[in-house]
Structures are given as structure tokens and as C-alpha cells.
Design goal:
The structure holds 3 protein chains of 3 kinds.
Chain A lengths: L3 H14 L16 E6 L2 H5 L2 H14 L6 E6 L11 E4 L3 E3 L7 H11 L27 H4 L17 H6 L4 H9 L2 H11 L11 H10 L6 E6 L8 H8 L1 H15 L3 E7 L3 H16 L4 E4 L4 E10 L8 H8 L23 E5 H13 L1 H5 L9 E8 L5 E6 L4 H8 L9 E6 L5 E4 L9 H6 L8 E6 L4 H15 L5 H18 L7 H15 L3 H5 L2 H19 L14 E3 L9 H5 L5 E2 L7 E2 L9 H5 L5 E3 L1
Parallel strand pairs in A: 1-2, 5-6, 5-9, 6-8, 10-14
Antiparallel strand pairs in A: 1-3, 3-4, 7-8, 10-11, 12-13, 12-14, 15-18, 16-17
Chain B lengths: L2 E6 L2 E6 L4 H7 L23 E4 L6 E2 L10 E3 L3 H16 L15 H8 L16 E2 L5 E4 L8 H9 L6 E3 L6 E3 L16 H5 L5 E3 L3 H8 L5 E6 L1 H6 L13 H11 L3 E2 L2 H22 L5 E2 L4 H10 L13 H17 L6 E7 L3 H6 L5 E2 L2 E2 L3 E4 H10 L21 H4 L6 H15 L17 E8 L2 E9 L1 H12 L7 E5 L16 H6 L2 H14 L10 H11 L5 H7 L13
Helix pairs in contact in B: 9-11, 9-15
Chain C lengths: L4 H18 L6 H12 L4 H11 L3 H10 L11 E6 L2 H5 L2 H12 L12 E6 L11 E3 L2 E3 L7 H6 L2
Parallel strand pairs in C: 1-2
Antiparallel strand pairs in C: 1-3, 3-4
Helix pairs in contact in C: 1-2, 2-3
The chains are: A alpha/beta, B alpha/beta, C alpha+beta.
């Protein structure tokens, strides 16, 4: 491709083809009358979406409508809990939990006769209500409060087809930047938009670009941080799987802004689908001349390479990521000098997160004012969250910044399953903190989360119910950081381990008076003195659970009791005398012979012998045994 | 050079713009505590003790890696910093084997010193310690990981400075370990035994393999005739162990102390250095004349020799076949001296006092023996000798001077300077020049091969024949030099290589100087001064003028490179695998 | 499972070719190690010595990199590699109990291989199928919404 005119040509042609999906009248005389979108994200692929697509192809052929219905494999739709997901356009009908056996019915009934397969239609419109009559995706409870900017193409286009991306105005922003804008005006626009890093700390993106632009060097780099490691966060993976070109386009725009001609995407090797689609996208962009030399005939050169992460969470920290690309142990290095001055291979470098980049082209196309129309004054735009844990709608959601946590949990997330009570939400993963039920109306934006001791982080949002022990959760996150600490600096290498030692003691009923204070002392020291962001934020889950659930810590330490009943060592298994029929089954199953009694009279558990394995509870047919 | 002005603890300083805050603070006479920092070797900001508070900065910064900035306001000492440093010290201690009283570094341990300064009086964070092992298999070096504090100074010395990579950092987090791959012993690794890691270690995690027990046993054995010989660098460094200033030459006291320790004869490795020049100079002239492998490379340094065998086996033919000086002397003691004194060589026990840990390995080489007897029986480092002197209650500083024993005790200035980088080259040139030209060399000092530059070059005119020479010290520099030779970018006839940076005066067996002191001085240059001043004070400064050496040839060896000389004073080398697999 | 001499030689040839192609690339070490890991399933001292030689990086540094990243293994892995996700979403839903059950059934711990070389257990962070939590992967097969009681039957399939 040599010019923008050619790009426009492809765009116009392809717009006709996706018109069905846009729920517009098709502008071409194509025979295609329906689009079947099958989710090809990791979640749905794991639950068998590839097979479903293959069966669709067979069934369509068998029904003789293969040339009337187009099957498109897309990225993630977001509602992973209900996968595999299939959407049929032009109606926009959302079929959830589709099994291979359901496919022929969808084809014969919906696609041949035009009758919806009601039993598979997802029609939850929020508040526990079902829709009456046909419901489109955007009217469901899960989707209606969302605003999809970064995820706009995920679950909408075929990520392996560059033409579909171009049809949704893809690479238009790059064209505009290269022909109508200067590096300064690009940075100015980004500054005006208020876009902040979506990877965790929320540093203004334009300021990073500005620093890198001001650094004088013949060689500069743009690095995309796709080393999403926060356990429970997968938005970056979804963007790469569903809309890889958006990232490539943004990297090229950033390259133009700072004066770089080379980019790296550092992506986890554990994301094979994302890696594959990204590689396809890069190759297609190269073939089209959108990457390479003299892009759109403007004299601008830019290319992108992939580097695979090898399984180290700390490499999400920007300096560690650079060290890793350079071929070393992914250990962070001190800042300053900042990467914008001295980064990859010693050259000025910007490092932006995937989700951050996914916003860039849209800001260029739609303007700063448009972007600022979402979110709050200081936290503009939207944020993607991976909802997980004890919540009905596990999945990926994108909401305007400042949306109250309650909306996310109750409306979008569909609340807590099994009638349990919401206890707390954890944001920011191992670097963040928890938000207790009492603060459920907190608006979700950078400042608000920070003020209550949590942080936005990369967007994991884990919901916990009354059965989750907060000391155990703190221990879980700390175990993670201890495991993932690079081991370079003293406070993180030894300090986090010592905190874990104390927490382990507490959850095993060996806590001592003064442990909480010792935890706080260590935590504050690690925050103040660790070398990198991983270490400096590692104590947050502990500090925030102490802040909001100190009584739980105290119950563990003083009363040797776990209020949530989760800490195994503190659990007490007892047999209810009234319910026990004396069948002796539990005593026979008990691996350590801790249960004694005479047949037909109530049995008793010897607490000294009990190893709290729970076998007895599982074996009792009368529900006579309980754990406290 | 650009400078910046900043205030540190309210004191205004103006320093070069490329300074770190730590360096700037030192200009203001402020000592910020450090542990992982080692000037020019390791600057990684890992231990988190050199923390400072900078106005406007979000977190505390490690001053060893933080650049200065114009108008910066820095605090190095307030309650917050003291507390942070103390907790980090306590954390280090929680994973450290604290058996200080039995530690070789007790009294000379940077961690111990800091704990004292920071008033550490309890261990609030004790818990499980990380898995740690002690490797005592190498004949030269012991690694005791129960004491390792993961500061990585040794790794930097081994990798960045020496470019060997015998040890490295493995695993991560709390399980991070410093050591050889797959938990191997140093003995099976590419380790060249140079001991630079020992000098870098702030604590007792690395030390030489102690040989004092063997030496005591020999001294206590009435059937043994125990002969000792100290290397040139020993006299330039031993004084430090007794509180004397760095660069003080203590030759006379050294001889007195050795006698008091009970050695039967105190000979001088400097004598053997002169002997080496006779052999090596002759060998060089022979190669120049007869077309032998050039450039010829010196072979005095056992660290360098093992490095060459492992990393550059293609240069083995270029190595001089001369044994190193103390090995030559050992062979002469057990032949010429034994004959003269009428002692059965089997009853002679030769102890070398060396600034070197690699000499311990070298002494065990099979090829360095004559008639089944090792040339040298035991090697002590300067530090081990110092501990023996202290143990014997010898008031070293007040000892009178004494002279080495004849007939292997005389030395010239040329032998003395063997201990510094460029010294062997200079000594050789002094002799070779006179042998080739037949003229008297008026100015014996070859300034071009002196000093601490990593690689030095010179061209010497020998009656119209130009000889190009080069000097490299430290295997890192040697690698650079050899690679240039390999690529054909450089062409020399004679190269001096010493395994340790600075040569023997800063060898792995010399007194350990703490990181703070090393920030202020160039240890290599300071210690070399002691040797160069001793050389300057000598009446005879050329090896071929050594009367005892001349007598040795006349009475015993015949002439340099004679058949007998070859049998006793020359050796051979073998290519070695980097890893010994079992 | 043991490879023949020819197969091993072919793998080394492939590694050598990959190195020749990429050795001048900045930061080539990790991609080369990833290739070796992919070819052999682990990094032996011999493989590391080859890489060391070709890229002029000390073996100790390669070893340091290999032990830093979870992806690299120093011992051969089992025929089937089992990864139980211990990401937050899975943890909250009881993944630890599933992992404990796998360990109990196989009698090995994380990072270990059964004596018959059939199964290895690998530490795994979020596999990204949080909707299916708790999740386990055996090679490329995904098992979701697990209970500890399911483990035995699943293992029996292999």
C-alpha cells in the first residue's frame, strides 16, 4: 500500500461487508445475509469454541446456506463465564454456553427459518430480570452499563483479518498523524485527552512521550508491555487476541511522536493465541506497507518485533521488562535514569501498556473532548476490568472511569452467586488492596482507589464473599510476590518473606501479640525502601486488609479462630449430637482415626487427632458434621 | 567538565555532573553506609542501605546509583533513614549465619561494622533461612553461602571485571543464590582461583582454603626442614594487616617474623624472579631468533595460566614454558640447596607466602614436581601469614629488620617489581636490552608499562630491532587484548599477563580493604608504590646482576635454558574443559 | 520416549541454525534459550555450553536466566505437563485443593516429574480462563470448574 487513498479504498469496500454486523443495510450486492460470530478468545477456546466453529461450517454447508452466512472468529466478548459464546447478526442475538450439539439447531432454526433458539439466548437485562421478547447484546445487564473503547473491536471483528480492522476505521488515525500532524501536536492531543497508563500506576501517557521526544538520540524505541502477570487480569490478552492491529497502530503513532523507528511487544509466552494473532497482524501490516519503510509514502519508518516473556511477573515492571528484552534476568534497575532518557539498549524508550495503546487511535480519530466525555476529570476515559472470584458474570468489562463499584458488582457482574454476602473486592492484584463492602459505592478511578488504600492496577477485580478469609487472601497475594520477587534488593527479597512467615503463623493459629504491628513495620519499610514498583507495592494487600479487617486478624491471633472458616489449621470439625445417627461411616472414613463412638449413638471427633481434612463432612449423609 | 551544585544535609557542594549522590556526599565528608556498592565493580542499588531522601522524590533513593542534579536537596541522615537502614540490616541478619566469633572476617566484616554503627541489638525478624551450602572442595577458595548476603560484589568481580563467570546469580526471590551452576563446586567450574571474589566479599562468605594447619604441622615436625619464601607483593601488603599504612614496604620485618615463626630458612621469591628473567629472557630471544611461537606470553600468574588453558587454549604454545618464580625456587631448593646443605629433598618442606589464592591450586599441579616431589608443599596467603604472626604473639610493627638467607636470598630491583602489573615486562626488558645490545641501560625505568591502565603497550628498540610489547592485568583485560591479537588487529612479540587487576599487589591473597576505603584510593597504585620505591633504592636493578643467581648457574645449572634448567625450571600446559562433568 | 542419536543431532542442528540466524540480534540470548527449551523440553549443561560458546555469554549467566524464568526447565519434563492455575480467581474458588489432590494422586510436588516420566506438575499463574475457575491444563487440554474429586478420573484418561 503506498497511499492513504488505497487505505480509504479498502475501507469503503470492507464497510459494505461488515454492514450486517453494524446492523446497517448491506451496501453491496453480496449474497451474505447473516454473520455468525464465534468467540475465539482463550476462555471460549478452552471451552470448545473451535469445535463449534467447525460444526457451524459443516451445518451451513449441509443446509446449503454456506454462501449466505459468514462465520467470523472474533476475540473475546467479555462474558467468559457463559462461554462458548456465539452472536448472530443482523439481529445481534447473543447465544451463551453453546455446545456442539446446539449448533445444528441454531442453523436450522435461526439461520434457515429465522426463529431464535430461545433456550440459548442470553436475555438477562439486569436486576435478575429476563427480557421479554428479543434482546440485543447491548441491552443485557452485562453490557448496558459498559462503554467499550479499548475493547471496541473485541468480539466484533476477525482479528486475523486486517481488512476488517481497516473497515472499522483502522489505520486511519496513523494516516492522519503522518500526514496532518506533527509529533508535538500528537503529544499535545494526548495530553489534552488526559490518557493515563492503564498498566497500574496511572502516569500520564503524553508526559512519557514528551520526555522521550525531548531526549536526543538517533535511535529510540517504543515498547508495548503485554507481560500481563497480575493473577486474575486478562484484558491485555483479550485486546491482543481480539484487536491486535489497534496496538500496532498505536505503537506506530507513538513512534512518530517520539521519533522512534522500532517497537517491541513483550508478551507472555503463556498467551499462545495472543502471540499468534499478533504475529499474523504484524505480517499483514508489513505486507500492506503499514509497517516498514516509508509508510503511506510519508518517509516515516516503523517496524514491530515480538519478544516472549518467559514467566516472571516482575517483568511487567518497566525496567525489568527492558532488562529482559536485553537478554538478562528480569531484574529492575534503578530510576532515574528513566527509560525515556536511557531505556532499551541504553536508548530513549517509552513503555506503554496494551490497554493504554488500545485507546490511542481512537483519541486521534475522535478527539480529546470525546475521550474526556467518559470518566472523571482526573481519570478520563474508560477502564477494562477482569471480573473474577465470587461473582455471577465472570468476565471482561469496560466501564467509564468513576463508575461506582456497586454498579460493577451488582449490575454488570450480576451479584454474588449462591445467595452469599459481598465481603470485599480486591483491585490492583498483588500491588493493590481490598475494598470492603462498606465502601461499595466508591467510584472506580485512580484517585478514589488510591485514597482508600487500593489502586487501579492493571484491572483485576476479584470479588470475595463471606466465606473468604481476608488474612488468607493477604497471605495468598504475599505468597505470590514472594515467589515472584526478583531477589535483587534486601527489603523485597527478605522483607516480604518475613511478612509471609508472620502471616503463615497467624493462619496456622500460632500468631502472637505484636504480630500485626510487626507486619505494619515491615510493610512500611518495604514500601519506602524497595528498589522497584513490585516491592514497593507488595505490602499493600496486607496493609489494606489490616486496615479494613483488623478484627479478623485479631480473631486469628487472640482467639485462634478464623471467622470465615477458611483457615484449615484453625477449623474445628464437630458432630451435632442431635443430627448424628451413629452410622459410623465418618469414623471409618477418617484417615487418622480421630472419630470415636458406639454405633447408633452420637460420635465425637478428637480435636487433638483431627487433621482437618474434611473427609468426614463429605461422608456424612445426615449433614451432622460442621466446620467452624 | 560540567558541574552541578547541590546541598547534602545542608552542606553545599559542587561536583562533576556525572557524580552519584554517594560520591557527592563524600566530597562533603559525609559517609553514607553501603554494602553492595564496590567502586568501579558493583553499582546496582540492591542492598538498600545507602538510602537518602531527596526533596520532591517519591521514594527513598539508593545514593550509589542516583545521579546528582542541579539544586538538589538531599538528606543522608535523619530518623526515617536511620530506621529504614536498621530494618534492612536486621532483615539481612535474619538470613545470615551469625557465628561471628568463629568467622574468618570477624573484625574485618562490613556487615558487622554497620550493625555496630546502627546499634543493632536484637534480631526481630528471624525466620527460616534460605537453603545454603558450603563448598570446600576447591584447593584455593571456600564459598560459605550460609554467610552470603546476596550483595553480588563477588559476581561482579568474577563476571564484569574478570570475565570468567564461574559464579553467578541463580533462582529468584528469597531463594536467590550466588554460586556455580547446578550447585557444582568451584573446583569443577571455570574458576581460575584468582580470589578476586574474596577481596570483593564484604562478609565471610568467601575466603581462602586455610593451609596454616599443614604449615604448623610441618614446623612442629622435627624431621622436616621447613623453608619459606615470600613473594614480592607480600612485603608491600603485609603491613596493612598490622595497621600500617597502605603502600608500606615491610621486607625486613617480614624476614624477622618468618624466622621467629620457626622456619629453618627464609629464602626470597624475588631471587626466583631474577632467575625467571634469566630463563624467560633467554627463551624470548630464542623464539625471536629461531621463529618460535610469538607473541610469547608470561607464565608467572597461575590464575592467568588456568584462564588460558580454559578460555584460550589456542594461545598455549605462546605461553613461556617457565614455571612461576616460587615453583622455580621450590625446585631449586629441593635440588641445588638440598645438595649444598646435605639434606634429603624428601625432608624439605617448602612453604610459599603468596599474595595469591591461585598459587594454592598451582602448587598441586602434577607437572610442577621433580622426582615425585612437589616443588612447593604449602602456600599461604598474606592473610594466613598475618594470622600466624598474630597467633605467635609477634609484635610485628616493632620488629627489627633482618636479611634473607643466602644462597637463595639475594634479589635485584627487577625481581622486586614482579609484584606489580608491568613489572615482569620491565624486568625482562632491562635484561634483554643489555643482552641484545651489549650496552648498559642507563634509564632502567620503562614508564610506558607502569601504571594501572588495563592494557599498556610499548615499543623497544634493541639495536635497530623493534620489539612490540603489551601488558594486560586482570583476565577481563587479557581477554580484550587476546581478542585483538586473534583478530589480527594487534601484533606483538612479548606480552605480560597477570590474572589479577593490578597484578600481584592486589592479588586474591592480599589483605582485604573495605569498600569505603576503596572509594577514596586506587589500591593498585598505592601498593605498587611500595615495590617501585624498593626497586629505586636498590643498588642492583637488573636480574642478570644478581650474584647468587650467577653462582647458581655457575655451580649448578650451567646456563639459562640449559638441559638441567629445562628439567627443573620449565613446564608445560594442557587445554582444560571449563566444566568437569561427573 | 528416549530420543535416538539422530533425533538429538537433528535438534542440535536446528538449534545451531536458529542461533546462526539470530545471533547478531540485540538480546538474542532469551529467544535462543526459548528455542532450545522448545526443542529439548529442558536445558542441559551441554545445551547451555553450546549457547554459551555461540553467543559468548558465560554458562553461569545462562543458568541464572534459566533459573529466573518459570518457563525454563533444567530437567526433562514428563510426557504430560499438568498446570493447575493458581491465579486469584481460581484460588478464590478452591484451586489449591485441586492442586493438592493432583499432588496426592501422583505423589510428586510442583516442578517434579513422576518416576515413570509420565506426568510433571508445573507451577502456573493465571491461564486466563477465569470464567472456568478453577482450571487445570494437561498439555493443551483444559479442564474447568473442577472439584478435587474430579482429579482422579481426569488423570486416568492419560
Amino acid at each position: 500500500m503506498k497511499s492513504l487513498a488505497q487505505l480509504a479504498e479498502i475501507r469503503d469496500e470492507m464497510k459494505k461487508s461488515i454492514a450486517i454486523r453494524m446492523q446497517e443495510k448491506p451496501g453491496s450486492d453480496s449474497k451474505v445475509r447473516a454473520h455468525v460470530l464465534v468467540c475465539g478468545g482463550t476462555g471460549c477456546t478452552s471451552s470448545g469454541s473451535v469445535t463449534i466453529r467447525e460444526i457451524f461450517e459443516k451445518e451451513l454447508a449441509a443446509n446449503g446456506i454456506a454462501d449466505e452466512v459468514q462465520i467470523i472468529q472474533t476475540g473475546c466478548f467479555g462474558l467468559c463465564a457463559l462461554g462458548p459464546v456465539v452472536i448472530v447478526y443482523p439481529e445481534g442475538t447473543f447465544y451463551s454456553q453453546v455446545t456442539p450439539d446446539d449448533v445444528s439447531e441454531i442453523v436450522s432454526s435461526h439461520l434457515v427459518k429465522g426463529e431464535l433458539v430461545q433456550r440459548l439466548v442470553y436475555d438477562d437485562i439486569g436486576g435478575g430480570k429476563k427480557a421479554e421478547g428479543p434482546v440485543s447484546l447491548n441491552e443485557t445487564g452485562f453490557y448496558k452499563d459498559q462503554k467499550r473503547v479499548a475493547l471496541r473491536n473485541c468480539g466484533f471483528i476477525d482479528p486475523e483479518n486486517i481488512d476488517e480492522y481497516i473497515a472499522t476505521d483502522g489505520y486511519k488515525a496513523l494516516g492522519k498523524v503522518l500526514t496532518e500532524m506533527t509529533p508535538d501536536s500528537v503529544i499535545e492531543l494526548m495530553l489534552e485527552s488526559g490518557l493515563r497508563g492503564r498498566g497500574g500506576a496511572g502516569f500520564p501517557t503524553a508526559r512519557k512521550w514528551q520526555f522521550a521526544k525531548n531526549s536526543v538520540s538517533d535511535k529510540k524505541y517504543v515498547v508495548c508491555n503485554a507481560d500481563e502477570g497480575d493473577p486474575g487480569a486478562f484484558m491485555d490478552r483479550s485486546v491482543l487476541e481480539g484487536d491486535p492491529h489497534a496496538v500496532i497502530e498505536a505503537m506506530a503513532i507513538a513512534g512518530f511522536a517520539i521519533g522512534a523507528d522500532e517497537g517491541f511487544v513483550y508478551v507472555r509466552a503463556e498467551y499462545p493465541i495472543a502471540v499468534k494473532r499478533l504475529a499474523i497482524a504484524i505480517n499483514q501490516a508489513r505486507e500492506y506497507g503499514i509497517l516498514g519503510k516509508n509508510i503511506f509514502g510519508t518517509g516515516f519508518n516503523f517496524d514491530v518485533n515480538i519478544r516472549l516473556g518467559s514467566g516472571a511477573f516482575v517483568c511487567g515492571e518497566e525496567t525489568a521488562l527492558l532488562t529482559s528484552i536485553e537478554g538478562h534476568r528480569g531484574e529492575p534497575r534503578p530510576r532515574p535514569p528513566f527509560p525515556a532518557v536511557k531505556g532499551l539498549f541504553g536508548q530513549p524508550t517509552i513503555i506503554n501498556n496494551v490497554e493504554t495503546l488500545a485507546n490511542v487511535a481512537q483519541i486521534i480519530n475522535n478527539g480529546a473532548e470525546w475521550f474526556k466525555s467518559f470518566g472523571t476529570e482526573k481519570s478520563t476515559g474508560t477502564k477494562v476490568f477482569a471480573l473474577g472470584g465470587k461473582i455471577c458474570h465472570t468476565g471482561l468489562v469496560e466501564i467509564p472511569m468513576g463508575t461506582p463499584l456497586r454498579t460493577i458488582i451488582e449490575d454488570i457482574g450480576g451479584g454474588i452467586p449462591n445467595g452469599k454476602k459481598f465481603k470485599a473486592a480486591q483491585t490492583g492484584g498483588p500491588s493493590g488492596g481490598c475494598i470492603p463492602a462498606s465502601l461499595i459505592d466508591t467510584p472506580v478511578d485512580y484517585e478514589s482507589l488510591m485514597s482508600i488504600g487500593s489502586m487501579m492496577g492493571s484491572g483485576g477485580l476479584i470479588v470475595m464473599d463471606e466465606d473468604n478469609c481476608m488474612v488468607d487472601i493477604a497471605k495468598f497475594f504475599l505468597e505470590f510476590t514472594v515467589d515472584e520477587s526478583c531477589g535483587k534488593c534486601t527489603p523485597c527479597r527478605i522483607g516480604t518473606r518475613r511478612m509471609l512467615d508472620i502471616l503463615t503463623r497467624i493462619t496456622e493459629g500460632k500468631g502472637e501479640e505484636g504480630d500485626i504491628e510487626k507486619l505494619e513495620e515491615l510493610a512500611n519499610n518495604i514500601k519506602a525502601t524497595a528498589l522497584c514498583g513490585l516491592g514497593q507495592t507488595a505490602p499493600n494487600p496486607v496493609l489494606s486488609t489490616i486496615r479494613y479487617f483488623r478484627d479478623e486478624y485479631e480473631a486469628h491471633i487472640r482467639e485462634k479462630r478464623c471467622p470465615a472458616g477458611q483457615c484449615k489449621a484453625l477449623a474445628r470439625f464437630t458432630i451435632d449430637r442431635d443430627l448424628c445417627r451413629g452410622c459410623s461411616l465418618c469414623a471409618r472414613k477418617c484417615p487418622v482415626n480421630a472419630i470415636e463412638g458406639v454405633v447408633k449413638s452420637p460420635f465425637v471427633i478428637d480435636q487433638d487427632k483431627c487433621i482437618k481434612c474434611g473427609t468426614c463432612i463429605d461422608s456424612c449423609k445426615f449433614g451432622a458434621i460442621s466446620k467452624k | 567538565m560540567n558541574t552541578v551544585k547541590l546541598t547534602i544535609d545542608g552542606i553545599q557542594v559542587e561536583v562533576p555532573a556525572n557524580y552519584t549522590i554517594l560520591e557527592a556526599a563524600r566530597e562533603a565528608n559525609i559517609n553514607i553506609p553501603t554494602l553492595c556498592y564496590l567502586k568501579d565493580v558493583n553499582q546496582i542499588g540492591a542492598c538498600r542501605l545507602c538510602l537518602v531522601e531527596i526533596k520532591g522524590a517519591r521514594a527513598l533513593q539508593a545514593s550509589c546509583v542516583s545521579p546528582v542534579g542541579e539544586g538538589m536537596e538531599v538528606w543522608t541522615n535523619n530518623e526515617k533513614l536511620r530506621k529504614a537502614r536498621k530494618i534492612n540490616l536486621e532483615l539481612i541478619l535474619s538470613n545470615h549465619n551469625r557465628e561471628c566469633t568463629s568467622c574468618v572476617r570477624s573484625g574485618n566484616c562490613e556487615l558487622q561494622q554497620l550493625c555496630k554503627e546502627y546499634g543493632v541489638d536484637q534480631y526481630p525478624f528471624d525466620g527460616n533461612k534460605s537453603e545454603a551450602t558450603i563448598d570446600e572442595i576447591s584447593p584455593s577458595i571456600v564459598r560459605d553461602n550460609t554467610k552470603c548476603i546476596s550483595c553480588r560484589r563477588c559476581v561482579a568481580a568474577c563476571n564484569s571485571v574478570q570475565k570468567i563467570g564461574a559464579i553467578g546469580v541463580a533462582k529468584r526471590g528469597f531463594n536467590t543464590t550466588v554460586g556455580c551452576i547446578f550447585g557444582m563446586s568451584l573446583a569443577d567450574s571455570p574458576c581460575i582461583n584468582c580470589g578476586q571474589c574474596i577481596l570483593a566479599c564484604p562478609v565471610g562468605a568467601l575466603h581462602e582454603k586455610d593451609s596454616t594447619a599443614d604449615v604448623y604441622a610441618a614446623l612442629n615436625d622435627p624431621t622436616k626442614h621447613v623453608v619459606v619464601q615470600p613473594a614480592p607483593a607480600v612485603r608491600a601488603t603485609l603491613g596493612e594487616e598490622f595497621g600500617m599504612e597502605i603502600g608500606t614496604s615491610v621486607t625486613g620485618k617480614l624476614v624477622s617474623a618468618l624466622r621467629r615463626l620457626g622456619f629453618d630458612k627464609v629464602f626470597d621469591t624475588d631471587f626466583a624472579a631474577d632467575l625467571t628473567i634469566m630463563e624467560e629472557g633467554t627463551e624470548l630471544l630464542g623464539r625471536l631468533k629461531n621463529g618460535g611461537a610469538l607473541p610469547m606470553i608470561t607464565s608467572c600468574s597461575p590464575g592467568w595460566i588456568k584462564y588460558c588453558e580454559e578460555f584460550y587454549p589456542e594461545f598455549i604454545p605462546n605461553l613461556s614454558s617457565c614455571k612461576s618464580p616460587h615453583e622455580m625456587l621450590g625446585a631449586i631448593i629441593k635440588s641445588y640447596y638440598a645438595e649444598k646443605a646435605g639434606i634429603d629433598p624428601k625432608d624439605i618442606y617448602v612453604v610459599s607466602i603468596m599474595p595469591c589464592t591461585a598459587k594454592k591450586f598451582e602448587a598441586g599441579r602434577e607437572e610442577l614436581s621433580v622426582n615425585g616431589l612437589q616443588d612447593v608443599d604449602a602456600v599461604l596467603t598474606v592473610r594466613e601469614l598475618a594470622s600466624m604472626i598474630k597467633n605467635a604473639g609477634i609484635d610485628f610493627k616493632r620488629l627489627p629488620d633482618a636479611d634473607f638467607d643466602s644462597v637463595l636470598g639475594e634479589s635485584t630491583g627487577a625481581g622486586v617489581i614482579f609484584g606489580a602489573t608491568g613489572g615482569v615486562m620491565e624486568a625482562a626488558l632491562r635484561t634483554v636490552y643489555e643482552v641484545v645490545t651489549g650496552n648498559t641501560l642507563e634509564n632502567v625505568e620503562f614508564a610506558a608499562v607502569r601504571g594501572t591502565d588495563g592494557i599498556k603497550e610499548a615499543e623497544v628498540d634493541l639495536n635497530g630491532t623493534k620489539v612490540r610489547v603489551a601488558v594486560a592485568h586482570g583476565t577481563g583485560n587479557a581477554k580484550e587484548l587476546l581478542d585483538m591479537v586473534k583478530r589480527g588487529e594487534k601484533d606483538y612479540q612479548f606480552i605480560e599477563i597477570m590474572g589479577c587487576p593490578g597484578g600481584c599487589v592486589t592479588g586474591g591473597g592480599t589483605p582485604i580493604v573495605d569498600a569505603t576505603t576503596l572509594s577514596y584510593i586506587d589500591l593498585k597504585a598505592e601498593r605498587a608504590k611500595a615495590l617501585y620505591s624498593e626497586d629505586a633504592g636498590k643498588a642492583k636493578r637488573k636480574s642478570h646482576e644478581n650474584e647468587e643467581v650467577k653462582t647458581l648457574y655457575k655451580e649448578f645449572l650451567g646456563e639459562p635454558n640449559s638441559h638441567k634448567a629445562h628439567d627443573l625450571l620449565h613446564t608445560h600446559y594442557i587445554p582444560r574443559p571449563k566444566y568437569i562433568k561427573k | 520416549m528416549a530420543l535416538t542419536k539422530e533425533q538429538i543431532a537433528a535438534k542440535y542442528a536446528e538449534l545451531e541454525a536458529y542461533i546462526s540466524e539470530n545471533k547478531d540480534m540485540d538480546g538474542a540470548l532469551i529467544p535462543v534459550m526459548q528455542k532450545a527449551q522448545e526443542l529439548f523440553g529442558y536445558l542441559s549443561l551441554e545445551t547451555m555450553e553450546l549457547i554459551s560458546e555461540r553467543l559468548d555469554v558465560p554458562v553461569s549467566e545462562i543458568y541464572g536466566v534459566a533459573t529466573f524464568y518459570a518457563l525454563f526447565s533444567l530437567t526433562p519434563k514428563g510426557e504430560y505437563v499438568i498446570s493447575v492455575c493458581t491465579g486469584t480467581a481460581c484460588y478464590v474458588k478452591g484451586a489449591q485443593l485441586v492442586l493438592d489432590e493432583v499432588k496426592k494422586q501422583l505423589g510428586i510436588g510442583s516442578g517434579e516429574t513422576t518416576p515413570d516420566g509420565k506426568f510433571s506438575i508445573q507451577d502456573t499463574r493465571c491461564l486466563g480462563c477465569c470464567g472456568l475457575a478453577p482450571v487445570m491444563m494437561i498439555n493443551n487440554d483444559v479442564y474447568g470448574r473442577l472439584e478435587p474429586a474430579d482429579v482422579k478420573d481426569i488423570l486416568a484418561k492419560y
